[in-house]
């Protein structure tokens, strides 16, 4: 079934309910959202988008962008959202890889692809002349693609995780039940809508029940605190919670109507969890997910939420911890986290070999995360086998940054690592073998037009040589230990 058909059934039951409450603009009811989806759907058809076509979207967070997303899914197209921070060369890579029929962008873009401009205020060429006749959602099977979410691996070139209608439906059903979604819930939404967390977890839970979403354009701690009293649910990355704790007027009164605070995308420290409970009387509920698998495990809504753990496998999802051959390890031992279930993606877009490498013969997906499971079945993530930095909930692949640094004429070689950062949890540091001219400013200038800002090293350290093991491999763990404190200010 087309997941959109499920949403529409809920929307039709609640036409007068606020759908998108926009503190910076006009609010939309569900009736208005339905009309705008029809309009966006008509616009997509006018641009020639057909069933199975990819629609690449790099758009600011507006109600119109939400309508475009829902219209894509409704019309059987494959929605491909990308980070608004990406530079032109990064965007060109996605265009070449997914071959979109249409690129919906916030600004004009000069490339060999049809571009529809969706301005920040929702206007623009995209909408012009589109009639809004209601049409039925295109029939889709569980196995048909709804979206491609780009994520990288050790090679540093992003791969498109193919998510199906079945993946999305099963996950939203499981999450609404696990988190006890209620008819009177109001979601405070401050996450970007180009990742699984903001799009398929947060928005989907609200849309599945046609409950209101307070749509904040971006995360701003003061604005968030102001809106909290009329919300019941917040989903955020750990940086949201550390920033809330640093905000003087955030207290139990701000949370008086809050039912649950949910955290994910990066590790929530036990310290943050404890400080939050002390300040508000509420315990953050931590869960674990991935672009390839949507949500996998969650601490319980009722029952003990144990800080530092990501809880139990969600219903219908099998989680195991294995050795490198895929054999399940005894409880308590650290190994690879592997998953199987209706949430697990169909594979990487046009990369069957990569897909095959990451699945076991019995269908379990190897996540690249390392963890341990206790006797009760609670999972704790202890690290990552994949070379990945998670900074403020954004993934940065060291290889991608290293490859660009190595293009600098003054750089002989480089190693990019993640080190503790007080705001982002972890952030990027580059250790380079280079001549004197290379400093932070020079690196920022070089990366400027090539790489999204959040991937830029927050510190560049120059060294005479990189530590290597007997095989000649750079010992990143040594670098991580040596430079562990460089961003702790
Ligand atoms: C912004 N900057 C960052 C980050 N964000 N640097 C490192 N890491 C970051 N995450 C840099 C900008 O480049 C800029 O640099 C400066 O910080 C200020 O930028 P601004 O946009 O004002 O930052 P912000 O608005 O304060 O953003 C911080 C943020 C944001 C709110 C934490 O990064 C965010 O929304 N993160 C959530 C990401 C997310 O949704 N992740 C889910 C994906 P300069 O000053 O040098 O220009 S993972 C997922 O979906 C899986 C399935 C899961 O489990 O959830
Ligand atoms: P992404 O590729 O953006 O979907 O990021 C997924 C990765 O984020 C996972 O493989 C984990 O490494 C990490 N992640 C997600 N949730 C958590 C969490 N609660 N604790 C620690 N890491 C997490």
Which oligomerization state do the chains in this entry correspond to? single chain
Task: Decide which structural class fits the backbone.
Answer: alpha/beta
Instruction: Note the gap between the termini.
Output: 51 Å
Provide the spatial order of strands within the biggest beta sheet.
Answer: 2-1-10-9-11-12-13-14-15
Q: How many strand elements?
A: 25
Query: How big is the Rg?
Result: 22 Å
Strand residue percentage: 15-25%
Question: Any ligands, ions or cofactors bound here, and which?
Answer: methylmalonyl-coenzyme A, adenosine monophosphate
Model regions low in confidence, pLDDT < 50 over at least 5 residues: none
Mean pLDDT: 95
- Determine the fraction of residues in helical runs and give it as a percent range: 25-40%
Bulk shape? globular
**Major β-sheet, in short?**
9 strands, mixed
Note the topology.
Layout: H1 3-13, E1 18-21, E2 28-29, H2 30-46, E3 54-58, H3 63-74, E4 78-81, H4 88-98, E5 102-105, E6 115-117, E7 145-151, E8 159-164, H5 165-178, E9 187-189, H6 196-209, E10 213-215, H7 221-227, E11 233-236, H8 238-245, E12 260-263, H9 270-280, E13 285-290, E14 294-298, E15 312-313, E16 318-322, E17 335-340, E18 347-348, H10 352-357, E19 365-373, E20 379-384, E21 389-391, E22 394-396, H11 398-406, E23 411-421, E24 425-434, H12 440-447, E25 459-462, H13 476-482
Parallel strand pairs: 1-10, 3-4, 3-5, 5-6, 9-10, 9-11, 11-12, 12-13, 24-25
Antiparallel strand pairs: 1-2, 7-8, 8-18, 13-14, 14-15, 16-17, 17-19, 19-20, 21-22, 23-24
Helix pairs in contact: 1-6, 2-3, 5-6, 8-9
Methylmalonyl-coenzyme A (MCA) binds at residues 191-192, 195-198, 218-219, 237, 239, 264-265, 289-291, 391-394, 424, 427, 453-454.
